[in-house]
Amino acid sequence: MNFSVLLIHCPDQPGLVFKITQVAYRHNLNIISNGEFVERNSNHFFMRTAFSGSFDEAIFLSELQAALPPEAVVKLSLRKKRDLCILVTKEHHCISDLLVRHAFGELDANIKCVISNYSDLERLTSKFDVPYHHVAHENKTREAHEEEILHILDHYNPEFLVLAKYMRILTPAFIQRYPNRIINIHHSFLPAFAGANPYTQAYDRGVKIIGATAHFVNEQLDEGPIIAQSIIPVAHTHSAKEMAQAGRDVEKIVLARSLKLVVHDQLFVHRNKTIIFD
Amino acid sequence: MNFSVLLIHCPDQPGLVFKITQVAYRHNLNIISNGEFVERNSNHFFMRTAFSGSFDEAIFLSELQAALPPEAVVKLSLRKKRDLCILVTKEHHCISDLLVRHAFGELDANIKCVISNYSDLERLTSKFDVPYHHVAHENKTREAHEEEILHILDHYNPEFLVLAKYMRILTPAFIQRYPNRIINIHHSFLPAFAGANPYTQAYDRGVKIIGATAHFVNEQLDEGPIIAQSIIPVAHTHSAKEMAQAGRDVEKIVLARSLKLVVHDQLFVHRNKTIIFD
Amino acid sequence: MNFSVLLIHCPDQPGLVFKITQVAYRHNLNIISNGEFVERNSNHFFMRTAFSGSFDEAIFLSELQAALPPEAVVKLSLRKKRDLCILVTKEHHCISDLLVRHAFGELDANIKCVISNYSDLERLTSKFDVPYHHVAHENKTREAHEEEILHILDHYNPEFLVLAKYMRILTPAFIQRYPNRIINIHHSFLPAFAGANPYTQAYDRGVKIIGATAHFVNEQLDEGPIIAQSIIPVAHTHSAKEMAQAGRDVEKIVLARSLKLVVHDQLFVHRNKTIIFD
Amino acid sequence: MNFSVLLIHCPDQPGLVFKITQVAYRHNLNIISNGEFVERNSNHFFMRTAFSGSFDEAIFLSELQAALPPEAVVKLSLRKKRDLCILVTKEHHCISDLLVRHAFGELDANIKCVISNYSDLERLTSKFDVPYHHVAHENKTREAHEEEILHILDHYNPEFLVLAKYMRILTPAFIQRYPNRIINIHHSFLPAFAGANPYTQAYDRGVKIIGATAHFVNEQLDEGPIIAQSIIPVAHTHSAKEMAQAGRDVEKIVLARSLKLVVHDQLFVHRNKTIIFD
Q1: Is the whole model's pTM more than 0.90, yes or no?
Q2: Which of A72, A217, B136, B219 has the largest count of CB atoms under 10 Å?
Q3: Does the beta-carbon distance from B278 to D235 stay under 8 Å?
Q4: Domain boundaries, chain B
Q5: In sequence order, what are the residues at sequence separation of 6 or more whose Cβ sits closer than 8 angstroms to the Cβ of residue D76?
């Protein structure tokens, strides 16, 4: 279906929904779905409206801005497939799931390229006719390595970066180039395990549940706003290797689900959380 | 928090949100949360608004009706604890969970009485200072038995009836007295098992998951609109008795969660489904 | 790791574990894991032993048979990758997941070929260098169509058939050729929906949970012994199409998990259930 | 059913199952279920056997010890209801769930008493005819307060202590009095949140899942061997208070499930994990 999405957020005040829908009504827009949410701790208003109809974009936006308080952030997102670049290291489970969905038109986004610090996944990627860029990190500073990646990204100009098991820490400078536009997936545990070999730790502790968390990347590594989470049950009879396999299974599903929310403009990032209209 | 809930539904048409929020804005209402949903198959519009502020109820409603198409159903629900009557047979797990939540102020509703066709749960109920009515069904027609129950219900005039493991089939005449106001809980399986001893069937088939479904009761027994569902994993090593215990655990949590949605006016019933604003 | 699996089942009687482990001890076998289970309703004994060590297979088995009651079924399964043939129709999600796992050595089995009544998945399959046999069913009797498939299967001689969304009903004659050796995956609901368009029915009923069941195929279609099940939550805001996507996500994970149990000899089929040693 | 449970663990070596079952066979014991597990990292053997039949306990145990390596730990557990004492603070959800199950004979254990540092739950407890001991902690050293509790516990001599939301940290000296005999329940998150107000942190981070973990208490607070875990989904629309309610719901079910495993001798504690025979 061909529709546009309007995303508005600002400090809450009376009449916001009325003022917004008044403008939409004047423009004869057909609202397909409308969601609002006021985050109580910050008293901040969020509204997502999906609508169809033809309208003059510039006039519509200027009328909206005039009707809303000056701090309001208004984003009009015309419905089209978003461009993604995907960063990987050596693990295949997330990238192969994304490539398959992409090949069958289920991703609702364009995978412009895959970039990796290793060549391991080149053969897989080429099966799906997606460009693969191997940017080795050996003997390079972190900054120099990222510079090469950014150079490639500049060429594709993606809207979002997906870290599909990219196992290198990004510098703050890199992250700032894609604010709230980098999606990462990582395993999660109850309780959390810090440090190396988390599945060995999970095995040693006898956890009963393995989880996965998809989140936006900000400067707090692995602590950005959560987009989606899920879990899978395990048992003490499972080896650390079997637990890792369970972890991979849940990671790929959670990453795909989070991308659906992202590319359909179904969320806002607010402070360190997401407001999701699902 | 002291707030009111406005529930509106009608066939969809352009401008509904605008027209509704315009009236609310004129009355200086402070909208706390607002949800809309258009069910696409039926092109039907639903809106739930929670708001605070003082207003003239009659004027507000008449202005709303004037602004909306004549088919619109408008329900204004002033925030207060709802009255419930609970029907049980012999199983204690759901009723004891509800009585405990009620005793500690977590149910956000008043349990006016418990009615049962057996006396087994009288001792438990009396611990919590809730009236218990034992209405034996032996040697009575179904209609005569229900008549006695309805007589008791008339006294309490509850807004909702909760079937907390009430193991008798209600007549259509009874159900029509409480349209979409009777909540039932029952076990669910993947796949479903018809007939007697479902847990024995589940054991014999080796199911891996036991579920529970809370739903409104309509004339299709166990097939009314679903309010909430959840599951719990089981294994072939579990006896049918252990599976039944797992089923009881998930039933009581699902029933409590569905009552929260019901007493907080968080749902609409539309055809055979619920539209939930959670 | 290189190990063998011994699977024994028979009516229960005292001393079975002792008698079996006595033989194993005499042969200096190193038991890696041992599981027993007595199904109480049928009083039937099951034992699965994984062990390493070198031994004379014929002597070992004859000693075991001598020690056990005559009805005992003893299966010695030397550790090797099992051969699978996969049947599909048009949906790609399960077959692509299996092909990817296979390509990366995660399936612990050999996919010998993919057989389909359509050509849709040929391009995908060929990316992974697996033979694809298109056996159209148009203008053929069910028996004639199956005959062609059986002819292909005879060539590959697989140990197990996997129905990875094969949407045709198999005849009893076909099923009897692969008793408890055909694995199927299908969506599951709480409650179950019979007939066509199950996701539309699920949408119309407002289900909150979509499940998947992997099972062995016997002559009761979709009612054979369950191997694995899982679920994924959904909401009324999801379209039937989104529910179907959620269903596909859970189906592929459940099918892969069930294949792991099958190819590692981790289960017995007993009457209409499975006894699983996980 | 009247049966005994034999729990044996020792470093793994060939023939252990054979030697154990040989002794059982000589004593004409009827094995109801038998589970073994070898933990591979430590090469440690665990066996749990449930059996019926009459036997001379002393002879049986001395024959077992003679057949097994000297390091073997053998525990024979005659089937009887275990005695529990429960420690609480102010939250009612876990203790009320346990009291109800106890009252209806579902706990398979005796609740000898409830001990609390507050009087809040006395009224509830007395409804169920269980002694309540209020041991205020104000103006006492931690050691003096624990001394009073231990004095009460000495009177009841429980096999297990259950911390059903007991919100005080126990001293190592106290814990050593009940090694692997204290069960605790606490909320869990993906990721974990340290410090005060975890539900506020969970709300601020927008977590999608709330979990609960039941574990044995050792000297690493909240980091002892995990017995059971489960989760419940939440959304950004839920307030921190609603998330806390979800947390309470999952906590009480997980605690009850873990107690079932404990009182039925279904687990071993090994290093920092549990080996569970469920």
Answers
A1: yes
A2: A217
A3: yes
A4: 4-78, 82-276
A5: D4, D5, D6, D7, D57, D60, D61
